[in-house]
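>> Question from a student workshop board

For tomorrow's exercise we were told to take the sequence and the ligand below, predict the bound structure, and bring the output to class. My setup keeps failing. Could a helper post the expected result so I can at least see what it should look like? The ligand is T3D.
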Amino acid sequence: MSYKLITVEIKENVSVIKLNRPEVLNSINKHMAKEIQDALIEAKGSKEIRAVLLTGEGRAFCAGQDLAEAVPLEGNPADIGEIIRDSYNPIIKLIRETEKPIVCAVNGVAAGAGVNITLACDIVLASDSASFIQAFSKIGLIPDSGGTFFLPRIAGVQRASAMTMLADKITAAEALNFGLVYKIFPDDKLFDEAFLIAKKLSQMPTKALGLIKRALNKSLTNNLEEQLALEEKLQIEASKTDDYKEGVKAFLEKRTPKFKGE
Ligand code: T3D
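>> Workshop helper replied:
Here is what the output should look like for this input. Compare the format with yours to find the bug.
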C-alpha cells in the first residue's frame, strides 16, 4: 500500500507507522486519518505484523485535527460530526480492537485528538521534551477521540477535569506521574528504545498479548463477576495455543522459548 501523509515500514514483525506532516505538527486531515486507518487495518489483519509502533516525524507527535481543514479562513467550516465519525472514532476503535500490542512513542507535543490517540494505545513512551495538551477547550470544543473515556480512567476525574478544562501543557515528567506514560527516554534515544520494546513484544506470545488486551478492554466496563468469568474463558483459550506449550516446555528445558503468536 502506498501512503502520502504517513510512512509505514514493516521490519522484524513490527509495523512502524509514522505521522508525516511535520510542517503542521502532524495535524490530521481527512486524507491522513484515512491513511492511519488503512495502516491499522493492515496491521490488524497481517500475520507478519505482531506489534505496532506509532510515532511522529519532526518535533511533534500530533497537534490533533488540522484546524485549517476544519474551519478554513475562507469557505464553509467542515461538518464536525462527520470528521469525528469518519476520521477519529474509527482510529480509536481500531487501536483498541487490534489484538496486537500498539506502542506509542510520543516524540514531541501531542495536542487535541493527538493526545487522545496516545491514551488509546497499549504502551505509551515519551521523549524528555514531549508534552500533552487537551487543547480543545482553548478553541471552544470538548475532548473527543475517547478523551473523556480514557483520561479519567487513567489519571482520575480530578486530573482529567483540570487537564481538559484548563488545557494546560503537561510535561513528560507530569504525564509519567499522572500515569499517561509508561517510560520517558532522552529525545535522541526515544525511537530506538521504543522500537526495541515493540520488537520485544512482537517476539512474545502475541496471541496471549491480544487476549490480555481483550480482557483489559472489557475491564473498563465489566463488574468483578463478569471479569472473573471472562478471565476464565480467555485463559482456557490461551492455554490452547502452541505458544503456551512452547513457553512451558522451554521453561522446563531451561532454554529461551521461541514463540510464533499461534
Ligand atoms: O473538526 C474538528 O475540529 C473536530 C475535531 C477535533 C479534534 C481536535 O483535535 S480539536 C484540537 C485541534 N488542535 C489544537 O487546537 C492544537 C493547535 N495547535 C497548537 O495549539 C499549537 O500548535 C501547539 C501547542 C500544538 C504547538 O505550539 P508551537 O508554538 O510549538 O507551534 P506552532 O507555531 O503553533 O505550530 C507550528 C505550525 O504548525 C504552525 O504553522 P506555521 O505558522 O509554521 O505555518 C501552526 O499553524 C501549525 N499547526 C499546529 N497545530 C495545527 C497546525 N495547523 C493546523 N492544525 C493544527 N491543529
